[in-house]
């Protein structure tokens, strides 16, 4: 029997290595088959879109909005700071860096790559760092909803500034297809596979015995649930836990395939202009540095605790580049998806380094609390 947990853990552990391997393999394949990709541009475009949606869908299945209102009321200050970072500071900085790229479609694609939300997979970093998972979930949901309006606005604004005819209706349509469709489809799948199935199983008396630990829910959280609701929530959690390794494998496999296709499709451009690749990655590191410094300063000044700080940082840092790729391809073309293909090569490195820096971050924020 296939051990999906072991496979998922292996892929997660060595994901960065696989990303580099995929890029190294895709570059020569794309370079020597450039004519094929050029001749089948529509097919490539459809494949990119399919892989992008396929990468995003598992995140949308796992997305939980149950505690959103409660977390918003208690963490409104932290939420506002994170949203300012995601939708004001990051796009503004991206626009500055994009203006120096020198390739209009890629410039617009770079704005798209920094205007998309995080995915629920970003919660894994929050969890590793001991951050506030509930706040992270709220930020993901809010960022998805706001992106439906913010991303078309920023991309259209930049396109107009560089004299690219890119109607906001086209952008809105691309965002809807790339983000809203997977969100709705994912929640429908979640309802039938997780929620509805859990309600059906809860009718079995043995289910109550399997979920005895949920008896303490009211005491621990202050929420009031009936016994049936406790059992259903317990079963939903167990079902998601069983699905998580499968969904994780699904996400990483589709993501690697998407990166391979994006790199191969523009291999000749990337190989002929290594300075372009260097600039995009360097600019992205600059954006990461600005995000981290701003959130550290804001957390110290406003006495935001470590757990909430980590939630804000990782949801601000880790963008769902599959959405960016889909948006770019739909609105402009495959060339615009180059930044979305390159950024995943450094995004996990920065995230893991920040997780490793947790003891230093705790000292910095604790020093802020003492003043």
How would you characterize the overall build of this protein?
With 371 residues, the chain is mainly alpha-helical. The chain has one domain: Na+/H+ antiporter like fold. The chain contains 20 helices and no strands. It is globular and about 65 Å long.
The CATH first-level class comes to Mainly Alpha
The total count of helices amounts to 20
CATH architecture descriptor name: Up-down Bundle
Oligomer: single chain
Described by strand count, sense and barrel closure, the largest sheet is: none
Helix share, percent: over 70%
Determine Rg (CA atoms, Å). Answer: 21 Å
Q: Structural class, judged by helices and strands?
A: mainly alpha
Low-confidence stretches: 215-225
CATH topology call: Na+/H+ antiporter like fold
Shape: globular
- Summed up, the domain count is 1
**Terminal-residue CA separation:** 57 Å
Taken as a percent bin, the fraction of beta residues is under 5%
Give the strand tally. Answer: 0
User: What is the average per-residue confidence, as pLDDT, rounded to a whole number?
Assistant: 84
Q: How are helices and strands ordered from N to C?
A: HHHHHHHHHHHHHHHHHHHH
What is the compact description of this entry?
The protein has 371 residues and is an all-alpha fold. It has helices at 4-13, 15-32, 34-39, 41-62, 68-74, 76-98, 104-113, 123-128, 133-161, 168-201, 205-210, 217-221, 227-265, 267-272, 274-301, 306-317, 321-331, 338-342, 347-356, 358-370.
Topology at a glance:
Elements: H1 4-13, H2 15-32, H3 34-39, H4 41-62, H5 68-74, H6 76-98, H7 104-113, H8 123-128, H9 133-161, H10 168-201, H11 205-210, H12 217-221, H13 227-265, H14 267-272, H15 274-301, H16 306-317, H17 321-331, H18 338-342, H19 347-356, H20 358-370
Helix pairs in contact: 1-13, 2-13, 4-10, 4-13, 4-17, 5-9, 6-7, 6-9, 6-15, 6-16, 7-9, 7-17, 9-10, 9-16, 10-13, 10-17, 15-16, 15-20
């Amino acid at each position: 029997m296939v051990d999906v947990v072991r496979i998922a853990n292996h892929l997660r552990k060595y994901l960065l290595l696989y990303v580099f391997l995929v890029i190294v393999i895709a570059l020569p394949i794309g370079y020597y088959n450039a004519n094929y990709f050029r001749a089948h541009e529509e097919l490539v475009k459809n494949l990119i879109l399919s892989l992008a949606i396929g990468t995003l869908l598992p995140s949308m299945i796992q997305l939980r909005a149950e505690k959103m209102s409660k977390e918003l009321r208690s963490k409104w200050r932290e939420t506002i700071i994170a949203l300012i970072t995601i939708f004001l500071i990051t796009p503004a900085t991206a626009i500055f860096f994009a203006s120096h790229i020198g390739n209009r479609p890629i410039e617009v694609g770079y704005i798209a790559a920094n205007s998309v939300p995080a995915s629920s997979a970003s919660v894994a970093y929050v969890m590793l760092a001991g951050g506030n998972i509930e706040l992270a979930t709220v930020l993901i949901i809010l960022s998805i909803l706001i992106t439906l309006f913010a991303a078309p606005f920023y991309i259209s604004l930049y396109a107009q500034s560089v004299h690219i005819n890119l109607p906001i209706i086209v952008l809105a349509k691309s965002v809807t297809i790339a983000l809203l469709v997977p969100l709705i489809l994912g929640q429908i799948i979640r309802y039938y596979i997780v929620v509805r199935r859990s309600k059906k199983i809860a009718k079995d008396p043995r289910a109550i015995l399997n979920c005895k630990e949920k008896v303490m829910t009211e005491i621990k959280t202050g929420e009031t649930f009936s016994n049936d609701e406790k059992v259903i929530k317990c079963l939903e959690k167990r079902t998601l836990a069983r699905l998580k390794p499968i969904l994780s494998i699904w996400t990483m496999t589709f993501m690697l395939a998407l990166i391979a296709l994006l790199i191969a499709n523009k291999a000749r451009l990337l190989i002929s202009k290594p300075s372009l690749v260097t600039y995009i990655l360097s600019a992205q590191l600059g954006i990461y540095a600005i995000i981290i410094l701003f959130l550290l300063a804001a957390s110290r000044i406003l006495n935001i605790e470590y757990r909430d700080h980590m939630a804000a940082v990782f949801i601000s840092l880790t963008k769902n580049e599959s959405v960016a790729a889909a948006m770019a391809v739909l609105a402009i073309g495959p060339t615009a998806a180059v930044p979305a293909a390159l950024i995943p090569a450094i995004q996990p490195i920065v995230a893991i380094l920040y997780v490793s820096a947790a003891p230093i971050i705790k000292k910095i924020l604790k020093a802020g609390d003492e003043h």
